Amino acid sequence: xxxxxxxxxxxxxxxxxxxxxxxxxxxxxxxxxxxxxxxxxxxxxxxxxxxxxxxxxxxxxxxxxxxxxxxxxxxxxxxxxxxxxxxxxxxxxxxxxxxxxxxxxxxxxxxxxxxxxxxxxxxxxxxxxxxxxxxxxxxxxxxxxxxxxxxxxxxxxxxxxxxxxxxxxxxxxxxxxxxxxxxxxxxxxxxxxxxxxxxxxxxxxxxxxxxxxxxxxxxxxxxxxxxxxxxxxxxxxxxxxxxxxxxxxxxxxxxxxxxxxxxxxxxxxxxxxxxxxxxxxxxxxxxxxxxxxxxxxxxxxxxxxxxxxxxxxxxxxxxxxxxxxxxxxxxxxxxxxxxxxxxxxxxxxxxxxxxxxxxxxxxxxxxxxxxxxxxxxxxxxxxxxxxx
Length: 388
What we know:
The chain has about 400 residues and is mostly beta strands. The protein is about 5% helix and about 40% strand. The longest helix has 11 residues, at about 365-375.
């Protein structure tokens, strides 16, 4: 299929605030060079992640599979320092630890009554002698997806300055992505041609395209549906995605401008922040990948990022009233009509009736249903505010 513009506008995922239950950890020191990699599997064994360490002159790499089908090919993992050098290449593995947790989280409200928060976790410890920095790559695997983060353990100074994050998502060859920027329409394309049109137009105080906001939806040639997102972001630049150095590759991008687009950030230009300080020790946000057998099943993975959220810092949250926002955008070249929207919020419960979009011409019964299925492309991105 050729690249096509989808008709649904971007729906932001609301940040979840949460507490991660602490599982029991068993430290397993592993000294010496590892020639193949470190493997961690989901509790049900279907998801397999490997941290590759075969070539010390290169940064660590990761790959993932689901039920034997490729989710991520081998992609590099590194942080870029202020001077432009990478933290990762030529680093030596100094140890590893593993942790397991089994449990269920019951949120006070949301789209599901309970979430399985069971996981397996791998922490690989590295020492970069050139930069005098010790850091860790942490991989946590749930039954419905996985996530990765970096942690700066020790450094020569109490504060180090970073300029970028080089996390590579090497998708299976032939994968399709659904991308958007700000409030622009979704673009269906390959990773290499991921360049959605921003709306409103960008200004001089905006990160330059090509670039896409989160979440990013992916469909692999094997039929797997993925959603790439982030979680637990505090005092760290917002994540975006851009085409990577090779085909079917997506690279992380840390936003350098706080503004979005024309008129939304106040008058005048905003200077970019090309680097930022982090106090040691420091953990980056989680880079989350939800995995499903189909696009429909992916909707049920919407609660996964909340499982990686930090403990609630708000204290009493009785003042929060949950709700949902729904936005629907359609192809501009076709006339459509919205036929039903009704949201009722009670003291404790919410009744939600989603909007239906149908072609403007009159049609009845099965003919109308067939037209909706044939002509309306829907990309679902569900966001729920969760407090743990």
